[in-house]
Amino acid sequence: MTALFSIGFPTGMEGLTYPIPFSNPEDLVRIAQHAEALSYHSVWGNDHMTTQHYVRAEFPVPPRFWEPLVTYAYLAAHTKRLRFGTGVLVLPMRRDIVVMAKQIATLDHFSNGRVEIGVGIGAYREEFEALNPQARVHRGDMVVEGVTALRLLFSQRAASFDGKYYKFRDVELFPKPKQQRLPIYFGGNNPAHLRRTAASGDGWIPAAMPQPTLRRMVAELREMTEASRRKFSELQIAPQYIVHLGRNQEQAVARFRQSQMFKHLESLKRSTLRGQASVNPEDVNLVGSIDSVIARAMALREAGVTHFLGLFFAANSVPELLDQMQMFAEEVRPKIA
């Protein structure tokens, strides 16, 4: 199977992985059209509703977080083949699952079947608590319930659901998505996401995972999937990795460590990446010379990666991001089987 390559898209990345300002609407169009011209499979935007505490402390003005589904509705009219994914849509922050299902189905039609959905709990619990200050929930259970509810709404003529977090009765949601089975991925490094993917997912989205760990967890996912009587070959192993290419290893690492992306990864060591606190991010991600990045990407392919779903290019300006996308497409991607 030929590997797929996609772009991490800055719907909600100002102040996190990119400086403020960065993501003007006009630049989001430029990035999407550049991705399509370079034959990337898709773009994957993240989902934030309010500013994280550490971002408020660093920047004097708030970041602009664009809602991904609305953003994609606009970008679909400015592209023809590029697919649109959410990496990830934070289900616990979206309490009306029927409205969200309607939005996804509508987007799938208006984009002519170019939508893929990644879901997860979100990297910052503080963000969930800002939206739901009185709620006492298990966000992982909310994600599982949410996906179950979406599958029912997308498949049954009249759907009903009576869960702990989501409830609806006799909802006739039409039209259904244009795709017969709209892909839904589970995002996260926690082993619980393997069980969720094996049971009902179309793919798994880990983030910045070391190759030996990825290999072991892919093997576990294969066993779980086969135990669930599903075909492992139909799943996408679709990790997110940071990318920065340079003339040589030293130049690439030095520039990467000057980026807002590097600061963001350091912050995630207290949440999503807390199991990797002692690891240098350039030793895990695709940072370095062209030859070293090719070698690392090939090792990840051998470990089981089928879709480099979120190539998050470390760049402090949009022109630098566009250059990095082009360099990877021309110098690295053709060498990865």
Give a concise summary.
The chain is α/β, with parallel strands linked by helices and 337 residues long. Helix content is 42%, strand content 18%.
Question: Can you give keywords for this protein?
Answer:
two-stranded antiparallel sheet; TIM Barrel; 12 strands; alpha/beta; 337 residues; ten-stranded parallel sheet; globular; 18% strand
Word description of this protein:
The protein is of the alpha/beta class and 337 residues long. It has one domain: Alpha-Beta Barrel (TIM Barrel). It has 13 helices and 12 strands. The strands form 2 sheets. It has a 10-stranded parallel beta sheet, with helices on both faces. Strands 5-6 form a two-stranded antiparallel sheet. A hairpin with a 4-residue loop joins strand 5 and strand 6. Helix 4 crosses helix 6. The relative contact order is 0.14.
Gross geometry: globular
Figure out the total of helices. Answer: 13
Sequence of secondary-structure elements:
EHEHHEHEHHEEEHEHEEHHHEHEH
CATH domain topology: TIM Barrel
| Number of E-state strands | 12
Oligomer: single chain
Portion in strands: 15-25%
State the secondary-structure class: alpha/beta
CA gyration radius, whole angstroms: 19 Å
The name of the CATH superfamily reads Luciferase-like domain
Low-confidence stretches: none
Largest sheet: 10 strands, parallel
- How many domains would you count in the coordinates? 1
* Averaged pLDDT: 95
